[in-house]
């Protein structure tokens, strides 16, 4: 306790001592007056006691820190509960999805008559003629030196279409610029891609004028193993490297 506190106490105590200096002559005080003197002395001590003020401040800071920690703990608990609910909901959705009956994917069937719309062509139509196998293309060529021959142990599968002009005017048709791929599947199993043959009778190379009311025969040529037995043929047209269209050839 510092000098200021001591002085305050002495000053307060002096109120209890009469000016005559005689301790036996202390005047009588009422109970209320005694309480006022004691309260004054206590307040004086507290106000001048630095350590008390410091302890009081420390307690307030400690309470504030504890309250902040409690608030953060409550927020963390709330976040954890929300995360748990999300995980439970996600698991329930996954379980529901896995337990449900799988939806059967039905592949839409197309025919050669749809080929013009698939390739976004107007005033023309496609008709499947049939297929044949051999060792050279064109198959009716007399001089093998000008044909395209199959490799050893392989045969050429030639699939033919009639492409007709359905308008009353000549149609300039350029199939070489169409970004389409023509894959063939034999017996619902292995797929083959057409060979590159730079002839105008090949569908992917054709560029010519078809007179009104006329048609041209165009081919797709595939090299297949010699021992391949053909029961069914399906043509897959992949247009612009995006959509695939399955066309049954019968």
SSE layout:
Blueprint lengths: L2 H12 L16 H18 L1 H50 L15 H4 L5 E11 L1 E2 L10 E2 L4 E12 L5 E4 L5 E7 L4 E2 L14 E4 L4 E11 L7 E7 L3 E7 L1
Antiparallel strand pairs: 1-4, 2-3, 4-9, 5-8, 6-7, 6-10, 10-11
Total of helices: 4
Q: What is the CATH-assigned architecture of the largest domain?
A: Sandwich
Bin the strand percentage: 25-35%
By CATH reckoning, the class of the largest domain would read Mainly Beta
Q: Order of strands across the widest beta sheet?
A: 7-6-10-11
Characterise this structure:
With 250 residues, the chain is of the alpha+beta class. It has two domains: 3-48, no CATH class; 112-249, Immunoglobulin-like, CATH 2.60.40. Helices cover 34% and strands 28% of the residues. It contains four helices and eleven strands; from the N terminus they run ααααβββββββββββ. It has helices at 3-14, 31-48, 50-99, 115-118, and strands at residues 124-134, 136-137, 148-149, 154-165, 171-174, 180-186, 191-192, 207-210, 215-225, 233-239, 243-249. A four-stranded antiparallel β-sheet has the order 7-6-10-11, with no helix packed on it. α1 runs antiparallel to α2 (31-48). The longest helix is centred in the first third of the chain and has 50 residues, at 50-99. Residues 1-6, 8-13, 15-25 and 100-106 have low confidence and may be disordered.
């Amino acid at each position: 306790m510092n000098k200021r506190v001591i002085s305050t106490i002495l000053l307060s105590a002096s109120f209890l001592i009469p000016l005559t200096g005689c301790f036996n002559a202390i005047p009588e005080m009422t109970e209320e007056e005694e309480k006022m003197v004691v309260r004054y002395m206590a307040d004086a001590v507290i106000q001048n006691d630095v350590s008390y003020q410091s302890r009081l401040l420390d307690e307030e800071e400690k309470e504030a820190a504890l309250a902040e920690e409690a608030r953060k703990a409550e927020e963390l608990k709330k976040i954890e509960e929300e995360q748990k609910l999300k995980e439970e909901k996600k698991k329930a959705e996954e379980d529901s999805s896995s337990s449900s009956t799988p939806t059967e994917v039905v592949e839409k069937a197309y025919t050669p008559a749809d080929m013009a719309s698939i390739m976004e062509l107007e005033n023309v139509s496609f008709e499947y003629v049939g297929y044949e196998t051999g060792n050279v293309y064109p198959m009716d060529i007399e001089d093998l030196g000008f044909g395209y021959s199959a490799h050893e142990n392989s045969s050429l599968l030639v699939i033919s279409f009639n492409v007709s002009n359905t308008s009353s005017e000549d149609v300039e048709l350029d199939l070489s610029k169409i970004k389409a791929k023509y894959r063939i599947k034999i017996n619902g199993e292995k797929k083959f891609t057409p060979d590159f043959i730079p002839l105008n009778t090949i569908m992917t190379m054709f560029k010519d004028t078809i007179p009104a009311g006329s048609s041209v025969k165009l081919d797709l040529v595939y090299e297949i193993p010699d021992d391949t037995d053909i029961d069914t043929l399906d043509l897959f047209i992949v247009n612009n490297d995006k959509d695939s269209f399955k066309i049954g050839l019968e």
